[in-house]
Amino acid sequence: MKEHWYLLREFESSDLVIEHIKNRYGYSPSKEKAYEITSSFTQGREFFESAHKSDISVMPILQYYGILALSRGLILVLNKSARENSIKPSHGLAFVGWDKKFADISIKITKGTFLELIDATDNVSLFRCGSSGVNWSVSYPIPNTGECISMKKLAFCYPDLADQIKVWFGDVAPIVRFSTLKTTDDTIDLSLDSQIDNEIMKTIFPIDVFDDAKLLSVDDKHHVILKVGEYPNITQKWVSCFQTIGDVYLCPPICKDLRLNLVSTLFATSYILCMISRYHPSAWQKVHRGISNDRILPFVIKLLDLITDRYPQIIVDFLKSSDSFKQQ
What we know:
By secondary structure, this protein is an alpha+beta fold. Helices cover 42% and strands 17% of the residues. Strands 8-9-7-6-11-10 form a six-stranded antiparallel beta sheet. A three-stranded antiparallel beta sheet has the order 1-2-5.
């Protein structure tokens, strides 16, 4: 069992849940709400344990329902007024359409748990930037219902899967590592860790989203200058050459006005895999048995492992990390 699961076990104890919320948020939840929280975390752990033991034909379904349960537990902790019967039972996502090409899958945001999770976390991503622990954060605007999310754009949010993305699409992943982000009253200055590749930068900063982005190289140092309010899409690489040290990366925007934090990005990706394996089992079987449309297979296998490892860890980050990491 990973260390984060031991930490999450604390939230399967009503006494410890009441103590945690009182110490961190200054109020004592009722015993009934505490039990609702512990029930969600217990259910989430058991779904994840079942997913780990299951065949890949059903693993995405069990994994997603584990994510759903952990997410509901987190919402109950972070939202003082939330109760088990007040969280919408709907997923908060819906398929727009699909022609059997995984890269073309598109889902849209609806009312439900997905948006409630984003609201509860303020759409904040907690990052490990050259660190093994959370030491940086970014907050994005709350998205609206009806906004669409593509599987292809979600795939680019996973730098740890860059090799598998290249196998799937036949090209390098459009991602760039950066080390610092500085803001003034008018600009955002991103310091990159590698030389600027113009084609990749055009994908990360498309002109219809970033109409005034400037790419600068001065004394072998490379920068991107944006206007304040032009939010770059920032994501986490969990494993660097030092294994436990994380890095932050730039990746393409999901769409013009939509940015998602780490927890909701993983939620949306897991939802897609669940819906395919549950409602299109023949298509899913063809992929994981190597029959057709299976270039995505290495990506999916590693993605399932990443979700197993990192979703519970992100939940722990929100429960345990200092509020000082949140940018207002």
